Amino acid sequence: MIYYFYFFVKLFFLINPRLFRTYAMATLIGGPSAVMQATPEVQKICDEIKHHAETKAGKKFAVFVAKSFTTQVVAGTNYFIKVNVGGDEFVHLRVHKSLPHTGQKLHLESIQTLKTQQDLIEYF
């Protein structure tokens, strides 16, 4: 019986390889999650890291609103966040949140500037 189940699962993914890639990326250990709409928790992360983002970008942001994000579980969590910084201008942030027992603060690992709303959030 279980053999037939695996047969149909394999057949389903062979028919639609795009679904397989999506499923494989979502379930890959250490891989990125699906892109999600920003939550209040993600906006709080952005509020805490805004000063560091302005320093790395070399300019002040009048607006700093998280729009979407993806996560990657490592020794803690990497957040890849798309942030609106005014008008049609966006930045992408990679923020590391350590495991609670370490007592470390949020760390802005990297920032990409000159992004648009259409730009995909990818590992950087």
Report on the structure:
There is one protein chain. A 5-stranded antiparallel sheet has the order 1-2-3-4-5, with helices on one face. The chain is an alpha+beta fold and 124 residues long. The chain has 2 domains: 1-30, no CATH class; 32-124, Roll (Nuclear Transport Factor 2, Chain: A). The model has no long low-confidence stretch (mean pLDDT 83). The protein is 35% helix and 31% strand. It is globular. Strand 2 and strand 3 form a beta hairpin. Helix 1 (2-15) packs across helix 2. It is built from 3 helices and 5 strands, in the order H-H-E-H-E-E-E-E.
Overview features:
5-stranded antiparallel sheet, single chain, 3 helices, 5 strands, alpha+beta
How are the secondary structure elements laid out?
Elements: H1 2-15, H2 17-27, E1 36-37, H3 40-57, E2 65-74, E3 76-84, E4 90-97, E5 107-115
Antiparallel strand pairs: 1-2, 2-3, 3-4, 4-5
Helix pairs in contact: 1-2
Helix content: 25-40%
Largest sheet: 5 strands, antiparallel
Shape summary: globular
Task: Look up the CATH topology of the largest domain.
Answer: Nuclear Transport Factor 2, Chain: A
What's the architecture of the largest domain, going by CATH?
Roll
Residue fraction in strands:
25-35%
CATH class of the largest domain: Alpha Beta
Going by helix content, strand content and strand pairing, the class is alpha+beta
Domain count: 2
SSE order: HHEHEEEE
Radius of gyration: 18 Å
Given as residue ranges, the uncertain stretches (5+ residues, pLDDT < 50) are none
Strand neighbour order, sheet with most strands: 1-2-3-4-5
For the residues shown, what is the average pLDDT? 83
Number of helices: 3
N-end to C-end Cα span: 44 Å
Give the number of DSSP strands.
5
